[in-house]
Automatic annotation (TrEMBL), chain A:
Upper taxonomic lineage: Bacteria, Pseudomonadati, Pseudomonadota, Alphaproteobacteria, Rhodobacterales
Keyword Transmembrane helix: yes
Chief location category: membrane
Membrane topology note: Multi-pass membrane protein
Protein name: Spermidine/putrescine ABC transporter permease
UniProtKB/TrEMBL annotation, chain B:
PANTHER family referenced in this protein's UniProt entry, alphabetically: SPERMIDINE/PUTRESCINE IMPORT ATP-BINDING PROTEIN POTA, SPERMIDINE_PUTRESCINE IMPORT ATP-BINDING PROTEIN POTA
SUPFAM superfamilies (UniProt xref): MOP-like, P-loop containing nucleoside triphosphate hydrolases
InterPro entries named in the record: AAA+_ATPase, ABC_SmlMolc_Importer, ABC_transporter-like_ATP-bd, ABC_transporter-like_CS, Mo/tungstate-bd_C_term_dom, P-loop_NTPase, PotA-like, Transp-assoc_OB_typ2
Coiled coil (UniProt feature): none
Domain ABC transporter: 4-234
Full protein name: Spermidine/putrescine import ATP-binding protein PotA
GO MF term (any one): ABC-type polyamine transporter activity
Subunit structure: The complex is composed of two ATP-binding proteins (PotA), two transmembrane proteins (PotB and PotC) and a solute-binding protein (PotD).
EC top class, as a word: translocase
Its EC number(s): 7.6.2.11
PROSITE patterns, per the entry: ABC_TRANSPORTER_1, ABC_TRANSPORTER_2
This protein's encoding gene: potA
Species of the source: Ruegeria profundi
A GO-annotated cellular component: ATP-binding cassette (ABC) transporter complex
Length: 261, 358
């Protein structure tokens, strides 16, 4: 009796969470003029329209470039920061660690306004670079959390063994440390990419005029009406933001299995 | 192969001194063990020789050359760690070949050298496996193969046996000694296990609290401990505070409580001078007899058995002599003495040692 209740409740929660998503996906295949029920037939029309919508394609390109650059910069910085914090005795390591993680805890809108005000104060104009900078700030904690956890589990004596056999510290990093933490590095990069790709709050504050990312483009389109194109775009984004991490986790798992850790 | 010399080495971590001024000479080709309880500085010394720690003061010489400023990857050492430290993402053969890549070994020779090293550790067929597919003992053999394939100047072993279970440990002990003999490499072995040290070493360096207590052959440190610490750390000893009454060419006469005057021969009396002195009596040298047994030539005292700790091959007795409890470890012929029985305890004077001090 008790278990059945819990089971029913769980199913209810899942429905509540995923039904809206399912509806968006379903409606993206709707032939109707309007992006809502009733369904009038199956069609890929809205995906085609999406493909021909210059503004959306531009936003898509912007998002992907922004996401990739964010992932690259965040991952590089995150790996270096984790190495320093875990492998070396840095004075105030705990404080630095907390400060690096802090952007997760601060409400994004506060962070967004703060960065904007700060740059205004310095007389720096909004630019794509600033947008990238903002994204790096709040994806970095995720990379650091994942990579640090992995790095702690890699025993120092493996690196010491490599050095005792004649590898320089740099060779040791590329031969031993990096391959061993690669699953975490890839996971961190994926986190950074998807978080950047998804972000709207910070992006709205930081983007220069005329530049739109996919989320801000959708937001702009929604001001007029709910176009069925948006449902199609939503479906594409779900595939990207859910599918990519799953793929990444799969690859990471394969790599980890091969390396036996 | 090279000798290793520590000259007035000191290591401090902040205000804590891990190694007090230490001098040590490890001749080429010898097997030297740093023995002591945890925290005695033995691993710190090893890590300084390895170049994983910088000495605060003093000099380290390998093959007569000062290496204080030579980083670890240029010291040409082989290190075997307690937890194997194999590279989990590389096959066994890749692990063993790792050090060869950084030396001027022609590519064509690498496979042959790897195979020779695997043969030496008696695991010729595991080259294409990953470390996790091997048992702990096998992994440690691979770690050894990886360390010696580069023909290091010095082989450093940091408690390499303590992660293995008891039976395996004894096999590996013999194996390690055989391989060391075969290649003749200067070896520094760190352990807290006195039986490993006694079984394997040419020279044992007993350490305590960052200081060297004694340097000597296994039989030296076992039979003629230089301090009370050494006497207690290597096996169980009874230490009786007495007085040295006389010293001559034959040895010393020590007036010990419970047993009266004992003539300790000079090779067991060290530097003992007249004055307060201690009698060191190993538990396995103190034998229990029936009260009726003749005990000619032994130093004896009447005793009562208090505790019997039966261990199969041997038995450990705690006996009371006067107001003092002594420990005796005896082989068992038939039945051990029962608790409470009255016995005679005795030892040969040449089986004990004398130490200066009160």
């Amino acid at each position: 009796m008790g278990w059945n209740l819990i089971r029913a409740w769980s199913i209810g929660v899942y429905i509540f969470m995923f039904l809206p998503v399912a509806v968006v996906v379903l409606l993206s295949f709707n032939a109707s003029q309007f992006g809502s029920f009733p369904m009038t037939g199956f069609s890929l029309r809205w995906f085609v329209e999406l493909w021909n919508n210059e503004a959306i394609l531009r936003a898509f390109r912007t998002s992907i470039v922004l996401g990739l650059m964010t992932a690259m910069i965040s991952t590089t910085l995150g790996v270096l920061a984790s190495l320093a914090l875990v492998r070396y005795r840095v004075p105030g390591a705990n404080t630095i660690s907390t400060l690096l993680i802090a952007p997760i805890l601060v409400p994004e809108v506060v962070l967004a306004v703060a960065l904007l005000l700060f740059l205004n104060f310095l007389g720096i104009n909004k630019s794509f670079g600033l947008l990238l900078f903002g994204h790096v700030i709040f994806t970095l904690p995720f990379v650091i959390l994942v990579v640090q956890a992995r790095l702690i589990s890699i025993k120092r004596d493996v690196e010491e063994a490599a050095m005792s056999l004649g590898a320089t510290p740099v060779q040791t990093f590329f031969q031993i440390t990096l391959p061993l933490m690669l699953p975490a590095v890839l996971a961190g990069a994926l986190f950074a990419f998807t978080i950047s790709f998804d972000d709207i709050t910070g992006t709205l504050f930081w983007k220069p005029g005329g530049v739109e990312t996919v989320p801000t483009q959708i937001f702009a389109m929604l001001r007029n009406s709910i176009s069925p194109e948006i449902n199609a775009l939503g479906t594409v984004m779900i595939v990207m933001t859910v599918g990519l991490p799953l793929l990444g986790v799969g690859i990471a798992r394969q790599l980890a299995k091969k390396s036996g850790t | 192969m090279s000798s290793v010399t520590l000259k007035n080495i000191v290591k401090r971590f902040g205000s804590f001194t891990a190694v007090h001024p230490t001098n040590l000479e490890i001749p080429e080709g010898t097997f030297v063990t740093l023995l002591g309880p945890s925290g005695c500085g033995k691993t710190t010394n090893l890590r300084m020789i390895a170049g994983l720690l910088d000495p605060t003061e003093g000099e380290i010489l390998i093959g007569g050359k000062r290496v204080n400023d030579v980083p670890i990857h240029k010291r040409n050492l082989g290190i075997v760690f307690q937890n194997y430290a194999l590279f989990p993402h590389k096959t066994v053969a890749e692990n063993v070949a790792f050090g060869l890549k950084y030396r001027d070994v022609p590519k064509a020779d690498i496979a042959g050298k790897v195979q020779a090293a695997l043969d030496l550790v008696q695991l010729p067929d595991v080259g294409d496996r990953y470390p996790k597919a091997l048992s702990g003992g096998q992994q440690q053999r691979i770690a050894l193969a990886r360390a010696i394939v580069v023909e290091p100047e010095v082989l450093l072993l940091d408690e390499p046996l303590s992660a293995l279970d008891a039976n395996l440990r004894e096999d590996m002990r013999v194996e390690l000694k055989r391989i060391q003999h075969q290649i003749g490499v200067t070896t520094v072995f760190v352990t807290h296990d006195q039986s490993e040290a006694l079984a394997m070493s040419d020279t044992i360096v007993v350490m305590s609290a960052g200081r060297v207590e004694q340097v000597g052959s296994p039989s030296d440190v076992y039979n003629t401990p230089a301090s009370e610490f050494v006497a207690n750390f290597l096996g169980a000893s009874n230490i009786l505070a007495g007085h040295c009454e006389q010293k001559d060419a034959q040895g010393v006469v020590l007036d010990a409580p419970l047993f009266g005057k004992v003539h300790v021969p000079s090779d067991k009396a060290g530097q003992v001078q007249q004055g307060p002195a201690k009698l060191v009596l190993r538990a396995e040298k103190l034998t229990l007899f029936d009260e009726s047994t003749a005990t000619d030539g032994l130093v004896t005292a009447p005793a009562r058995v208090e505790t019997v700790d039966y261990q199969g091959q041997t038995v450990r007795y705690f006996v009371r002599v006067g107001d003092t409890q002594l420990q005796a470890i005896n082989m068992i012929d038939d039945t051990p003495f029962a608790e409470g029985s009255a016995v005679t305890v005795g030892f040969r004077p040449q089986d004990c040692a004398a130490l200066q001090g009160g």
